[in-house]
What does this fold into?
Amino acid sequence: MFPKLFWAVVLACLALNAALAQDPTKVESKHYKLAFENEWVEVVDVHYGPHEKSALHDHPGGVVVVLTEGHLRFTDQNGNKREVYAKAGESRWFPPLKHRVENLGDTAYNAVYIGIKARPSAAKAGPESGQPAMDARTEKMLATIVAALTQ
It folds into this structure.
């Protein structure tokens, strides 16, 4: 009897943990769309229409790049509320967080969230470091940006 009860409790705990840690691209697909993912980062397109709200979800630590200004209310898992005025073009770091979001504005809010999945080492990129080398397209784009900045 004890082993069956033990495994039932273990399964219930795993299910509860899965329910509490909610990937926004799965539970909030209306607001969060996966744009790109590899073993280091997850890039997510964020869109909230006017006055839209989300369910509780979480993000890894990362950077949000604001595309359109917005007035948002974040409510964490403990009920603490924080209003944020986001300006188009700004970037902000967020630690790992679990929250609900409400767009308080009359216009849509758009952003890109770059979640950090693993801490890259300071070593040079490439097969020996465990980090991928840049592909040709990225290398060309970076060279163009560097050339423009050094002129």
In short: The chain has three helices and nine strands.
